[in-house]
Give the backbone structure.
Amino acid sequence: MSILIDTQKCNGCGKCREVCPGSLLYKNSKGKTEIKFPKDCWGCTSCVKECNFNAIKYYLGADIGGRGSFMYTKQEGNLLHWIIVAPDGTEKVISIDKSQANAY
Amino acid sequence: MKLAAQKIETDILIIGGGTAGCYAALTIAERQAEVTVLIAEKANIKRSGCLAAGVNALNAYIVPGQTPESYLEYVKNDAEGLIREDLVLSMAARLNQVTKKVEELGLVIQKDNNGEYVARGNRNIKINGENIKTILADAVTQKPNIKVLNRVNITDYIIKEGKIIGAYGFSLDSADFYVISAKSVICATGGAAGLYRPNNPGLSRHKMWYSPFNTGAGYAMGIRAGAEMTTFEMRFIALRCKDTIAPTGTIAQGVGAQQINSLGEEYEKNYGSPKTCNRLYSTVMENKNGKGPCYLNTVGITANQESELFKAYLNMAPAQTLRWFENGCGPAEADVEIEGTEPYIVGGHTASGYWVDTRRASTIPGLYAAGDVAGGCPQKYVTGCFAEGEIAALSALEYIEEKTNEWPSNAEVEESKASIDNYLSGEQGIYNIEDVEDAMQKVMDDYAGGISSGYTYNLPKLKVARERIDELIKLSNSLKAKDLHELMSIYEVIDRLYVCKVLIEHLAARKETRWHSFQENADYPDKDDTNWLKYVNSRFVNGEVNLILRDLVKRDEIYEHTH
């Protein structure tokens, strides 16, 4: 389980570093955030949801069925949009209204 | 690098700012605003602990038509009778009031037209729990008398004249060694993951059910301090979606999916009553008998049901939704493969943890335990951890009346600091932290009933595990850390080794099989109510795990320790 951080998009704000429950994210010498211990990621997506710059891509390891897609999120008021990007670049968006309970 | 000692004084120290710890802090702040509370959290309370990704439902709630007593009966039946009824009942009695409180803090709970919560089954209610932890953290940070020390790893309790008077710890960000004096300490560190070789040992080694950052610190500190522990042998092993280790209950309860084998046969009913351990055991046995893979039979659910499942998983275990997209088809078109996880020690699901009295006091004066670290009370889940946090907080408040802060001697502080400094200086030996962790997980998997043996163990194997874990504890003394994160990693592996050491003795002690898979003793394959309706407890004294067998505590008893 892990994430990839796009160093072009990351502005080094540190919001993701603050919330990682494993304290796995650190600032590198260029002021950008990097995941220092990729194998220690739980996959909780706390960092993904903190990032306002869509810089953090959440993906599945090939050992658990990953085939190259990734996800990121966008917040819009009460809506949390999950954008799933396939290897061919096609996108699927699932929007969740945070004011609504799960159906199941 | 050498650490510099910093002294901090507080009325009540809470170790761990997760579910139970945050709720305990809020309880204290609301009851007695003049009492100072310090939460020491190894990450950041905003997303730390088990609820980082969110939670799908509240699974411990007294829905209309049910009572705390009926909840107790459910827990007792599921745990084959071996629970502390006083603890379960006192927890169950508070479930609804803590739920109301968290709703007031901002948690979305589904209601019907009459304003009643919508039930999901007999004990569950529907929520949007993606942000449950941030809601708790926001409430905590608004209380002026609660101070939060994020990114501080607590290493051990401070003991004086047989009482707990605080704890030692270090910062992940600066070379600070904390000496924290408290009139009372509430341990809420959570349980222990990472003891056994995990399902996905490679890149995704931390894609596990329980938080991989809950490494048994609270258990290990209690063990080293000589606190009595209970029922470690009742391990928890979750039945999960294959690979992503995402929950199965959401599918099973949400769309009524049954467990089937590769022949399409529903098999669970062939393995005894529908208990938590039997759902897992039946799947293990079907695989063993050549009938795997096993699945949740979801093919044929509606497009709407599938869409709601995608959302439900994004709110708690997003990897599963991504996996469905990676597969190119969702649960309506393909059944969901299931597997058992590696074993965990976790008192919120089973009964492992501190042996506490009805007021959640440990056997060491001044120390209380709540949530996954507290034993005797399975099926707490989120709301039960809130309830225990509340009970422990009220007990700690009563305890600190007339108490003053005490401090360890300078010599004791220096000795503790030197033991930490030792890991930060000198040359790394042959083995690094990861080598010791891998060795521990392999030993536990091979010899103490891990995934590879279908969770089964016997005494000859446990004897090997016992020797190897003792060797690894010795080896861990020579580990070295290049930075503060590695220092935390050293403590995480040492803490787990202590949990393993105690776990092995508990597994050996129970000469029956009480819970299939959770505790599968090949030397004694049957349940033995005549001799083993007893708690297996232990205390670690002078380097030895001393076992204590105790008789069952009844529901109407107020259990008190007799020191």
Chain A has two helices and seven strands. Chain A touches chain B through 46 residues (CB under 8 Å).
